[in-house]
Design brief:
globular; single chain; two-stranded antiparallel ribbon; alpha+beta; about 350 residues
Length: about 350
């Protein structure tokens, strides 16, 4: 049986009522179901919230197709359509962040008491690319996990998504590529431009807070702990009564790990012709030893320290030869390093 025949057969089963049967309706149910899965919060939502989620999908179907669907229609169709992988892959509906937010705002006005509408996060953080960089296959966006985005003056809940290429064993994430077989995180010059930086865990850093810490480190000698404590106090003062979603100690450790790899990637891309660099996947280790064993992060830095130092000295020693004369007016012929090799 061909793929087209399988899809047609699934459509017949999914929509017994011919007036409701269409490829667009099937695409919406499959793709919105991926974007807003029943387990988008943990623990699992109560049954009433699950029904409200289905009602929201019915609302989108009505807006997009002009046909009214019941919760039972959506649930039945979803279970049948998701039961076949080929059907899932062929059905595509482009519903991005802005469109979901627009529909959610309309739904809230119609259903102001809906627990789903109140708790569902309109901030959807998508992968930095949805076309595989190796085989050029267009990939499906699927739900990864829920999390929190840390800004300089606020914390927002979010839903994280990914796009997996099973053929190339690559998972495209918000600001990196997870190499499934190698268990490595690949950062590229393209992924580094993302507005949200996330490698693992539930904490997502906005690009602005990482740049802010870099400035505070250089100009005010800020520590990770001091910067985080100041940020948390700022957020609490601006938003009194806001929920404590993360401890300051955990946030400081996460900032240390993510910032280190973020700025190290910037450094490598600036000082060399490299366009990608791979890191250990376990990037949130806050100690140099874990269970009496050296952490993967410490091993990575130790193994690459000489190369990083070589790139640093080569870049600044041959700056004009490699990149031509610099017209910025702030470059120096000499770099002075103290006894502890801190520039």
């Amino acid at each position: 049986m061909s793929t087209i025949e399988i899809i047609f057969q699934r459509l017949l089963l999914a929509f017994p009522d011919e007036t409701k049967r269409s490829l667009k309706a099937a695409s919406i149910i499959v793709n919105i179901g991926r974007l807003i899965p029943a387990s988008y919060v943990y623990p699992l939502p109560p049954p009433s919230t699950s029904e409200e989620r289905l009602d929201f999908i019915c609302f989108i179907l009505k807006k997009e197709t002009g046909v009214s669907y019941s919760i039972k229609d959506v649930l039945t169709a979803h279970n049948i359509l998701m039961g076949n992988y080929d059907t899932q892959e062929q059905l595509h509906f482009d519903c991005g962040n802005e469109k979901v937010r627009q529909y959610l705002d309309e739904y809230k006005r119609l259903q102001p008491e809906s627990g789903f509408a109140k708790n569902f996060s309109p901030l959807l953080v998508f992968p930095h690319r949805t076309i595989c960089s190796l085989c050029n296959t267009k990939l499906k966006i699927i739900f990864q996990s829920s999390g929190y985005v840390i800004y300089c003056t606020k914390i927002k809940t979010c839903l994280l998504y990914k796009a997996d290429c099973q053929k190339c064993r690559r998972s495209y994430r918000t600001s990196s590529i997870y190499l499934m077989d190698q268990k490595q995180t690949l950062v590229t010059a393209e992924s580094q431009k993302s507005n949200y930086i996330h490698f693992s865990g539930s904490i997502v850093f906005s690009r602005e807070i990482l740049i802010s810490f870099s400035s505070q480190l250089i100009e005010n000698y800020a520590t990770f702990e001091g910067f985080v404590f100041g940020t948390i106090k700022t957020i609490k003062r601006l938003r009194p009564g806001s929920e404590d979603v993360v401890t300051t100690d955990y946030l400081a450790r996460s900032l240390q790990s993510v910032w280190l790899y973020y700025e190290l990637s910037n450094f490598i891309f600036m000082t060399s012709k490299s366009t990608e660099i791979s890191f250990p996947y376990a990037m949130s280790e806050g100690r140099t030893t874990v269970k009496s064993k050296q952490s993967s992060r410490a091993i990575f830095i130790e193994r690459n320290l000489n190369w990083i130092y070589h790139v640093f000295t080569t870049f600044w020693s041959h700056h004009e030869c490699l990149f031509g004369s610099c017209n910025c007016g702030s470059c120096s012929r000499v770099i002075i390093i103290d006894g502890h090799q801190k520039p």
